[in-house]
Amino acid sequence: MLDSVGSRRGGSHNRIGAIWRKNQPGSASSEPAPSQVWAIAVLTATVLTAPFAGAFGALAYIGPLMVGVGVLLNALSRRNATGIPPSPGPVLLATWLVFTTLVTALFSVQAEVAPLVLVGLVALTGCLAASYYRSAGDLRRVESTILVTSSVTAIAFISFAGPRVLGGGTNSWTLIYENSTWINSNTLGLVFAIAIGAGVGRSLRTDRRRLLPVLAVALCMGALALTFSRSAYLAAGAILLLVLVGKRKSFLLFLPLLLVGYANLPMAVQDRVAYTTSGAGGLDASSSVRLELWEAALAIARDNPLLGVGFHSIRPALAEYGAPAGLAFPHNTYLTLLLGTGAITFAIVMVWMGRYFARLVRQSHREPAGPAWTRLLPLTAALVCSFFGEPLLSPIPTVMLVALLAAPYARSASGRSNDL
């Protein structure tokens, strides 16, 4: 009798366990929930607008609008597929940014609306995307979507840029953006760098050695080279450096490839890198302007240490301190944050980001074949590119990055994948 009772109890527990596993996100037997299908559609629409966002800026906001719809649908259905509670950090930070912005606006006599609206929209997009993909996403599906759509974008960009470079002579890289409607090269370079980081991170997982990440990384590397974005080159180098440091055995495999690749860089890429030191003062015009902007930005920050001048007053403040006129931001995300919010908020954000980065590094060491690499490498690319511009002030790379950082990683009950 005890055996029969135990068997009935065991059967009951097994049925409950089977039902629980079936309802888990990412399980092999479950179909993608409507919220996950919508999440895939958001990422697809976001990345595929990159070729047209330069000509029609409003297209870049298709993805964020869809994110907002997804958040609304999730709220109405009262469903949370992962059981993960929303993080209060982004909400508190956004509230604090609104408060400091209002305070600086009260004392500003040269406020401008356009930069404030841009920063506000991108900040709102980031908060919505973080909340949405935390509850409705799946890291493996997010990876697959980014790799596929970025590969399509890379093919389109290579088809556009390749003939221009191959048909040109010295400094043919200048022909890429003549009469072009593509988005800013640094922003586009970050799009491809994020995809490269996601592909490399996925290939480092023992259950992910498949054709898709290898093909996507190869296509995005070729497209990134043709953006001629020096910040994107550095971002790709930082990704490679992290992998070589964290995966020391990979160094012996990658070293010959690196030496061959470096010795056979396309002439246009070599011209672009060499152009950096072609100016009369030792630097080209673009680099010289950046140094002037950074010098003025540091002076402004020194004179306005607590709350900064507000995002709405950066342009007139830069002009007042002798920087080149007509530039709304100092071509450095960190200095933009410092000028827009002041030293207090800047310190909070830097400590927050530093702790998160350090946690990802520790996780990548504890679980060398885990999902931490997929978050660490794209985040590293964004941090590097942000030092030389404000590429995250475009919703396209912002939604991609936030989706990768926020989406939960759920293993299937059978250990098999249910994505590409």
Mean pLDDT over the full residue set: 79
Radius of gyration: 23 Å
Question: Per DSSP, what share of the residues sits in E-state strands of 2 or more residues?
Answer: under 5%
Structural class: mainly alpha
Overall 3D form: globular
- Tell me about the biggest sheet? none
Count of beta strands: 0
The percentage helix is 55-70%
Distance between the termini: 49 Å
With helices defined by DSSP (H or I, 4 residues minimum), what is the helix count? 17
SSE ordering = HHHHHHHHHHHHHHHHH
Q: Which residues sit in consecutive blocks of at least 5 with pLDDT less than 50?
A: 1-30, 412-420
Features:
420 residues; mainly alpha; 17 helices; 68% helix; globular; disordered N terminus; disordered C terminus; ligase activity; O-antigen_ligase-rel_domated
Walkthrough of the structure:
The structure is a single chain. This protein is mainly alpha-helical. Among the domains are: 35-47 and 58-136, no CATH class; 140-282, no CATH class. It is built from 17 helices and no strands. The N and C termini lie far apart (49 Å).
Outline the secondary-structure elements.
Elements: H1 2-22, H2 34-48, H3 62-77, H4 88-106, H5 113-136, H6 139-166, H7 185-203, H8 211-227, H9 230-246, H10 249-263, H11 267-274, H12 285-303, H13 314-320, H14 333-341, H15 343-366, H16 372-385, H17 395-406
What's the gist of this structure?
By secondary structure, the chain is mainly α.
